[in-house]
Amino acid sequence: xxxxxxxxxxxxxxxxxxxxxxxxxxxxxxxxxxxxxxxxxxxxxxxxxxxxxxxxxxxxxxxxxxxxxxxxxxxxxxxxxxxxxxxxxxxxxxxxxxxxxxxxxxxxxxxxxxxxxxxxxxxxxxxxxxxxxxxxxxxxxxxxxxxxxxxxxxxxxxxxxxxxxxxxxxxxxxxxxxxxxxxxxxxxxxxxxxxxxxxxxxxxxxxxxxxxxxxxxxxxxxxxxxxxxxxxxxxxxxxxxxxxxxxxxxxxxxxxxxxxxxxxxxxxxxxxxxxxxx
Length: 278
Prior knowledge:
It comes from Odynerus spinipes. It contains 15 helices and no strands.
């Protein structure tokens, strides 16, 4: 332990010797030199220069042959156009050299044709007026808005008073639903209306059905053996309880002696519904 070491040093060593031992650097905490860190990173070691490449390294150094089926340049094309090696190794012919020479351009000198000076008998006063008009800056004429002129008429005070008063409307009288219009009373029917009033064929009057009457088909029908069996009353032995009891609220003695199961007790409990949180 550390405390025992200190006690041993104080007992066997002097203060100076103990201080020297403590001043020594700890070899565990010393930073070791990394073999990969080199002063000049671009230098090549001598062993690499003297070494000879093996067959495996030579095979791996060859460029990979990519088939057309799995050509990556189809999905990711190169940013520049690929040049075929045959075009790079080709030699130019004399025809190609002649075509490669740029054409000689003949620069045509277009001399500015000056206008002829005006004659001596020219009207210089008018000429100066025209030049002065052209030298004046252009004035932008804005369109004048079209405003309709209202005709003036004298103010009529009586008319203003009549307009200021509220409108008086008469409440219409309700029409009698049983009254007949006078035009309908005076109306005369035409020949066509008379033809339409008369029925074209006989009207079939269906007699009303009597509530207690039995249909003829039911009277003439013959019952099947199944219907006859169902129509017969059920024959029960004497003393057996029927569905019709004298007292509807009587409980059978078997129900009073019966024991309730766990399932029935669980179902008999009232269900608690938790309120929904909105």
